[in-house]
Design a protein that fits this description.
- The N and C termini lie far apart (47 Å).
- The longest helix is centred in the N-terminal third of the chain and has 14 residues.
- Helix 2 crosses helix 3 and helix 8 crosses helix 9.
- Helices cover 34% and strands 26% of the residues.
- Strands 2-4-3-10-7-9-8-5 form an eight-stranded antiparallel beta barrel.
């Protein structure tokens, strides 16, 4: 289990994934060496990782929740194959190991040309008995918003000291461009990569990197997420909830659920189950109590299906590799965005 310093560090990283250790140490009232040591230990023992992610809408991406049912002997191999793809995140084995849930990212502008996984790859995979794809229409909880179970260690004054400083308004420079590709790829591998490492990955100068990060964050095009083994926070039971809600009540229900401490993700999607959530609970009894006392109390939910998550195969960022975070993938110099 984690102590107060560990929890404070995790909360601080949710507020600013690139906050200097010295700043976090000052807020927590410990030494910089202590914070650095705790961070390294959590990375090694708790799968802690900060990842930089593009806002999907600003990046011209559409998100799809893919739900697959497979025969037991094929499910794990299929989940691993999906996790290795660059266009997937949050790959989970659920429902006794026979169901796979994954978030798939496709280019919005390319239409069917960018939907290879949805249109071609999955139907050709052996062992799949059912497939459904649900376009994510609106995310109410998740992404830049941390699960409350990770973000309750610091008080308001500590949070304000960690909040990134607002950058000067530069609207023309706050939009993502194709030139940002290498920068985003490096930040997905390691959101805390140094400016030097990011400069090596992009061919830009450190000053250009710093300015670009400031612009993208100020415009909401780039945010930082924190990956962590939630069992160290007392979570032993996770479940994906597929709900059917009348469209007239969907927004109200989604906003209500987004305020529930037990949920880490809430999104409106297409399909008969038009609202999806992920619950994180201490044990099955706590999940049962949540379903009957809180979710069940929302009368507009007409149907609810619960799929217990057995294992998280892939989280928000790409699978870890042996490549040093921020190492260059190309030798040529890239031209940064104008401005």
């Amino acid at each position: 289990m984690l102590d107060d310093i560990d929890r404070g560090l995790i909360h601080a990283l949710h507020i600013d994934g690139r906050a200097p250790f010295s700043t976090i140490a000052d807020v927590l009232g410990v030494s910089t060496q202590t914070v650095s040591r705790r961070y390294r230990r959590l990375c090694a023992e708790a799968s802690l990782r900060v990842v930089g992610l593009a806002d999907p809408h600003r990046a011209g991406r559409t998100q799809w929740l893919l739900r697959l049912t497979a025969v037991p002997h094929a499910a794990q191999d299929l989940a691993a194959a999906l996790a290795r793809r660059a266009d997937t995140s949050w790959v989970m084995l659920a429902s006794g190991g026979t169901e796979i849930v994954a978030l798939v990212h496709t280019p919005t502008a390319d239409g069917q040309a960018g939907h290879a996984l949805l249109l071609h790859d999955i139907p050709r995979t052996a062992g799949i008995t059912a497939v459904s794809a649900h376009c994510v229409l609106h995310t109410y909880l998740g992404g830049p918003t941390a699960w409350p179970g990770r973000a309750q260690s610091l008080d308001a004054e500590q949070r304000s000291r960690l909040a990134p400083a607002a950058a000067p308004a530069r609207p023309a420079q706050q939009a993502l461009t194709p030139a940002d590709g290498d920068l985003l790829a490096a930040l997905q591998r390691d959101g805390r990569a140094s400016l030097t490492d990011l400069a090596e990955a992009t061919g830009w100068s450190a000053a250009t990197i710093a300015r670009r990060l400031s612009d993208l964050r100020a415009g909401g095009a780039l945010f930082f997420d924190v990956e962590l083994d939630n069992s160290l926070l007392g979570v032993t039971t996770q479940a994906v909830m597929w709900m059917a809600v009348a469209p007239a009540h969907l927004d109200r229900v989604a906003r209500t659920l987004a305020g529930h401490h037990e949920l880490a993700y809430v999104a409106a999607v297409t399909g008969p189950s038009n609202l999806v959530a992920e619950a994180l609970c201490p044990d099955p009894t706590a999940l049962h109590r949540y379903l009957i006392e809180k979710a069940g109390a929302v009368e507009a939910i007409r149907g609810l299906e619960t799929a217990p998550v057995l294992r998280m195969v892939k989280a928000a960022g790409p699978l870890p590799s042996t490549t040093r975070p921020g190492a260059p993938r190309r030798a040529r110099t890239r031209t940064p965005p104008a401005g």
